[in-house]
Design brief:
252 residues; alpha/beta; Rossmann fold; 2 domains; five-stranded antiparallel sheet; 9 helices
Length: 252
């Protein structure tokens, strides 16, 4: 069964068509990286997949459960209660952490499991502490986000997403707000999750990381998936746009 399936997705903002007939399927345990120049539609695709944006056309399902179907040429969304259930299937880590500043690190982790998923506080707390241990942050449970470095905040954000026990984890440029020194510690955590067979979709501009950690890579440009395949296939492709994109990155 596909953990995630998107078919023939289109999305426009006014006259600007940002996603042009994109399809994506993700199997259990797969790590997919989405790369491409700014404005290629990567983050919009992620936002459509996580129900933060509504798509104009196309279908979306998680674990065989339809979130969006097509009727008369337009996307039709499932009822709110069904969408709420589907939202429990995935977690999302943003580039700018999105932690609650007035909550301690621990409260950031246990809030949704207790109030949204109605799990017992003791169980949620124990699991949260285990996640913080895994992230190397057990000693920061009572700290507040402003007391942490950017890399620590992003690791808390990853732990918070994992606390909801998602089947699929999305990352939207998880290191773009971090300086190079802190980038490594976040990428290390994502690599450990990949080794633990977590199903992940990662929008990233870290090419070497994408090459090492991904089962498949999608190269997007101007709203299309231009290339899709193994890291080797994509990075060694003689596709002109791909070569141009990599060339620009090497100059930066």
């Amino acid at each position: 069964m596909n953990y995630l399936e998107m078919n023939h997705v289109r999305k426009s903002f006014g006259d600007l068509e940002v996603l042009k007939d994109i399809s994506l399927t993700v199997q259990q345990g797969e790590v997919i990286s989405i790369i491409g120049p700014s404005g290629s539609g990567k983050s919009t695709l992620l936002r459509c997949a996580t129900l933060l944006e509504t798509m104009d056309e196309g279908t979306l399902s998680y674990l065989g459960q339809a979130a969006v179907t097509m009727e008369q040429g337009h996307s039709v969304y499932a009822k709110p209660a069904e969408l709420d259930a589907i939202k429990q299937c995935f977690g999302l880590v943003f580039q700018s952490f999105h932690l609650f500043p007035h909550y301690s690190v621990l409260k950031n982790l246990i809030d949704a499991p207790i109030h949204v998923q109605k799990r017992p506080k003791e169980e949620a707390t124990q699991e949260a502490m285990e996640l913080l241990e895994q992230m190397g942050l057990a000693d920061k449970a009572n700290a507040y986000p402003h007391q942490l470095s950017g890399g620590q905040q992003q690791r808390v954000a990853i732990a918070r997403a994992l606390a909801r026990k998602p089947e699929v984890l999305f990352f939207d440029e998880p290191t773009s707000a971090l300086d190079p020194e802190l980038t490594g510690e976040v990428l290390k955590v994502i690599k450990q999750l990949a080794e633990a067979n977590m199903t992940m979709i990662i929008v990233t501009h870290e090419m070497e990381f994408a090459r090492k950690v991904s089962d498949r890579i999608l190269f997007m440009d101007k709203g299309y998936v231009v290339l899709e395949g193994t890291p080797e296939t994509v990075f060694q492709s003689d596709n002109e746009r791909m070569r141009e994109f990599l060339g620009k990155l090497q100059k930066e």
